[in-house]
Every structure is written in C-alpha cells, then in structure tokens.
Specification:
Chain lengths: 223, 223
C-alpha cells in the first residue's frame, strides 16, 4: 500500500478508536512507524487528512445511495441499502461522533458537508421513490420528505447520541459495532410503517439481526 | 429579579444567540452591566452556569413529560406534548447545539445528562403508553421502544443538525424559531403512522403550523 493510503487508513483507525480530537499527527506517524516529516510530506496537517477521509466517505455513500437505471428495486435492494448504510456509519464513525467540532475547524469541510447533505438527501429521496414505484412502500410525497429527513437526522446523529449517553470512557467503547447496528434497527423501525404487506417475516428477521439481542448495549435506558 | 437569576437568564440568552463556546463570563457580566467580581460571587465559573441551566431545562422537561394520574389522555394532551417539547427545545437550544463539547468539559454534567436521558426516555414511554391506553395510538411494545428512541434522537439532535447544515454564520441564525419548529413537524411525522383514525384534519392543521410554509428555511436541501 502507498504511504499516502497507509496514512489515511491508519488515521481512520485511530480516529475511530479514540476520537479525532484525541489523535495528533504525531500519534498517527508513531502508530505507522514513519517519521512526522514523512507524514507532512503527504499531508500538510490533520485537517487535510480529515478532509480526504470525508471525501472517501462521501464517495462511498454516493456509490450505494442510487437507484439502478435499468430495473425496478426489489426487497433485496432494500436490505442492501440498510447494510450499506450500516457499513458506512461503522467505517467512518469518527465523522459524526463530533461533527460540530470538525466543521468548526474547517470552512472547506463545512461547505463540502453541506453539498454532501443536499446530494444525499436528494438521492435518498430517489431511493424512497424507487421503492414506492416498485410497490414496496406506500407513502405520499409529503411523508416521503419528512421520512427522508428523519432518516438523515437519525443516521448522522446516532454516533453522537451514543457518545452523549456513554458515561465511562474506560469501559466498553461508546461506538461498538453492536451499538452502531442498533442504529440500523432504529432506521428499519422508521421505514417500517410505510412498508407494503408481503415481507413481514423478512423484516422481523432483519430487525432481530440489527437489534442484536443479548449484546451488552446502552439501552438499559428504558429500565 | 435577583442577581443570580439575572445572570442565569442573561447567560441563557447569550448562549442561545451566539453558542456557549463563544460567550465568556466577561461577556455575560458586561451584557448585564455588572462587575465580573459580582458574577463570580454567584458562580465560580461558566461550567456552573451551564450546569444550573441544564438543571432548569431538565426540571422543565420533567414537569411536562408526565401522564396525569387521575384521567385518560386526550388528543389535546397530545398537542400539548408537542408544544411543550418545542418550547423546551427553543428556550434551551444552546444545550443540544454542541452537547459533545459541553459533556467533554464537565464530568458532572455528563453523569447528570445520562440520568436525565434515562428518566426522560422512561417517562416518554409512559406518555406513549398513555396515548395507547386512551385509544389514540395503535402500537406494540417493541415499536414503542423504537419510536421513543427515534423521538429522543430527533429532539436532542435537531439543533446540531441545523448547525451542521448552515453554511454562513452571518446570515439568518442557524437556530431560528421557524427551524426549531420544523423539528416538531418532523416529530409529528414520526408519530403519525401510529395514530388511530379520527383526528386527520387536526393533524393536518398541526403539521401546517409547524411546517411554517413560506418561511425562509434550510430545507432547500431537497432541491
């Protein structure tokens, strides 16, 4: 792997594990066993690394959040949207854990994030419309706008919600895989009331998978 | 008004307008036309002011997020829950605008926030159960847990969502009243699929009120 890519992947790993705020370029260089000078040859500062990771995240989301041009959507596609959303939330979990901080530090990122939001809300709506056209959802235009925005807020806020309710930082990490998965369960629950009949058992199985029963999770909240 | 209360109300106003990060105790004292020494006589530091404001917020939410012990809930009650939620979101909008920062600064606040989350999720569930008992909602226990958590994430993330998608800070404030109201519209949309028939026109009128058509808002997102 090229040094530039190694730096990006190493940074992503550390940002995800410790939070971007707690990771310096020196930490990254030390973790990769390269000199700080070598790191600075590829990236002027941490902001540039964050920005590049954000672009990769945005590219990944852009790639899956689309409707195939040549055929109708299927229930299997619907499951894939959930899976791909989970994958991107999990792989880039540092981004939405403390987005306000990242955006406050970098005007360029702020502008790019706004375009990304706009673009993704638009393509997300095409996906919902595609599911409706395929007879998989029953929903009117106004409900679709509201649902899309609620999905967006849920997906982009889930990591910071988990962070806010986690008390001890030395216990299990606030952003474990099981807890991110629970966010997808919540997403399935959001969309469920608009599903047309016919896949009830599949949805139950899907929900069980993402609910992750038996896994230690923060949702003792209700007790 | 006592000086202590004037400091709290003055701080709340400045925090809401400018963001807590951008307001110092000196700003607060200057704005109230009192000496910094006088402010420090009442509060040791800004953290103490934030904590006291959080307690007032938590008390306000605790007061309205309850089921009357002596009678069934009505549709009017349901509207009042929406209104009270909006009022608390609006009056204390600085809190959830950059919660990660506030919690990172103060372990005591972090613990208090966790108790508050737990308590409010529990009482919110009683409200949903009360609406179901009164025949106003049709929802099973599992859906109720998921809905309650989605409501929580939406309400506590709305201000930071608005902040994240606002580009220019010198234009209209990111957290205008109309934009916070739109969050309640989103909340009504979340609950709507579980409403029993009988109040469709009232819900339409309610949604129109919170959607605030014609108001300049950030939801050109979909265009």
């Amino acid at each position: 792997m090229k040094t530039r890519d190694r730096i990006l992947m190493g940074s992503l790993k550390l940002f995800n594990e410790r939070g971007e705020r707690n990771v310096s370029t020196n930490h990254i260089a030390a973790d990769l066993d390269i000199s700080p000078g070598n790191l600075y040859y590829h990236f002027r500062n941490k902001q540039e690394i964050v920005f590049e990771l954000f672009k990769r995240y945005a590219t990944e989301v852009g790639a899956f959040m689309a409707v195939p041009p040549d055929r109708q959507l299927t229930f299997t596609d619907k499951i894939h949207y959930f899976e791909a959303t989970f994958k991107s939330m999990w792989e880039y979990r540092f981004l939405h854990r403390d987005l306000a901080h990242l955006l406050a530090e970098d005007d360029g990122l702020r502008k790019a994030y706004q375009s990304f939001s706009q673009q993704t809300l638009r393509s997300g709506k095409s996906v919902l419309a595609g599911l409706r056209d395929a007879g998989l959802m029953e929903i009117d235009d106004e409900q679709m706008d509201a649902l899309m925005l609620n999905i967006w807020v849920l997906v982009t806020s889930w990591a910071s919600f988990l962070q806010a309710i986690s008390v001890a930082s030395d216990q299990e990490p606030a952003l474990s895989e099981a807890k991110i998965k629970r966010g997808i369960y919540q997403l399935i629950a959001l969309a469920e009331p608009f599903a047309t009949p016919g896949h009830e058992e599949d949805v139950l199985a899907l929900k069980a998978e993402y609910l992750g029963k038996g896994v230690s999770d923060p949702f003792t909240l209700f007790r």
